[in-house]
Amino acid sequence: MMSKNLNLSILASFLGLWITSFLNDKFQIPVGFLLIFSFGVLHGANDLVILTKLNASKETISFQKLILSYIIVVLISAFMFVILPWLALLLFILVSGYHFGEQHWQDLEDLSQKWLKSLFQFNYGIFILLLLFVFHTKEVQQIIFSIINTEVQFINIVTLLEVFGFILILFFMFYIYKSKAFSKKAVEELLYLLVFAVLFKVGSLIWGFALYFIFWHSIPSLSNQIKFLYGNYSFNNFKLYFKSAFVYWLISLLGIIILYLIFKNETIFDALFFSFLAAITFPHAFVILKMFKNKQ
Hints:
By secondary structure, the protein is an all-alpha fold. Helices cover 84% and strands 0% of the residues. α5 crosses α12 (268-295). The model has no long low-confidence stretch (mean pLDDT 84).
């Protein structure tokens, strides 16, 4: 199943590059948001079902308490963007980076201690985000300003990319030394990074993020979640997943639509949109972390 996901991701990436030549930024942005609102939001809509299964063997928390706890985490995350927006944004980037790296490298062999593996996953995810940011620095700075109301031109994204890139090379060298299997995979992974760089450079910020987020993160994550919940991936099991996630997915979409209708002509919409994403990302990343630990 993993190879099928990779084949789909590669095909979708090149299709996205081809579409980019026909769509200017004005059209890339709404199509990118459409992708994010579909599979992107859907892949995090079954967190409570996953938590319920994780909790089933322990039977320590009722489903009602799980829902309440989840809502509280979402509300606290959203509230942080009001009282400490710079800290909330920083945590959002750090958590998202680890979450992306964890998903991409969740099948990594146990070639090192768990904390070192986690550090590698974190470094990889942050490198991906910085790779996206470096091609759209002005847009990123504008979004950050709309969230924290402070100029961040002092942050040198290129330097950060070089630092995390250097550390990533050291990790690759270490794992290549530890495993022949990884050495074969390393060349493939470096080619993927080249594909990401091209995707991020030729498209808009939202388009590049959407293509990576959907085809390299959300769909592979959906596959992992379905296998965890139902034992294997199949179209019938996908329908079961969609059915159980539909209400939560619809609520999330309605929340985003309401924000858009109220603030679509305001510069604050960018801040509210990313704050909303962060609020649902924090608990989702925790749930997936628990799911992968349970699998191990």
